[in-house]
Amino acid sequence: MHSDTDIKFMRLAFEQAIKAKGQVSPNPLVGAVIVKAGKVIGSGFHSKSGNPHAEIEAINNCLESTKDSTLYCNLEPCIHTNKLTPPCAPEVVKAGFKRVVIANKDPNPNVAGKGIQLLLDSGVEVEVGVLKDEGEKLNEVFFHSILNELPFIHLKAAQTLDGKIQSIDGDSKWISNENCRKISHDYRLSYDAILIGRRTLNNDNPSLSIRMGIDSKGKLPFRIIIGDPNKFNWDSYLFRENLEKNIFLSTSHISNIGELKQEIIKKGQLIEISDLEMSLKELKKRGVQSILVEGGSKVLSSFLDKGLFNKITVFQAPLLLGNGEGIYYSDNKKISESLLLEINNSQVIDGNLMIELRKKCLQE
Question: Would you tell me how many other CB atoms lie within 10 Å of the CB of residue 52?
């Protein structure tokens, strides 16, 4: 059982870490707080890939000597050298901390307990696991992507009470309320890319930017469009500016290697792989660690059918549409064939219900 004091200061470390949301990929969110005689004497966070790590920032920001103080950080201090910044575990030892409190071990095989062991071998008292579950949720994208070939996939949709995400003619504005849409834009800040299908591109002409009062911190996510480029509306907003942020996943090989293909390549990166899972692996190789999927029924169903998701968020409004399209279409004939999910969290937001789900873990 961890002390109330350790929990209190670890929460402050989390508050530091979250300041860099959307800015540090492919690195984790890390914050650090230094405490001496019950008082915070320094704090810091990892602000951007290539910038000093949280522990170093906190040490540099200290108001007095760090000797015999306690360092709180949500992730194990690193020890490997194959990155832009030097390892921070040795610097933590040099700073003379009496105690280091950590939420999570680093899953990176280059660290994986080695930083903790260096501290212990140097005579530093170490406690691991304070707010462990909250720490894992904070860095769920990093923890997944460091050990998997696929990006972290978050499916998001707004639906009516009768399960429709759009009308028959493609109308979907707006099913959820303004505060729910604001949460959606906050999600956009958290992920490397937003993925939509050809129909959403053509029907909605989206900008896929971060708005609704959310501070984008200058970030514009990658915009991934999946489908047949021959059927794209090439007058869409996305093809007018920031073209380097466009990635096209073509579901079939583009036979026309002439003007069409050259025009597509001018407007973004082209990936011609018909298999969805292989396309996602290719995206990961190109640096896309996480994807927010905002597509329609066809796109969402393709991810759901293949189990290619880590998390689902559904915003449900108290509306009855009648005819329309749902989140998921399949050939299932029986309830027993249904895709089984588990509710991870739910809350009411101004009369709309937000539900977070994940794959159901079945007991053997």
Answer: 19
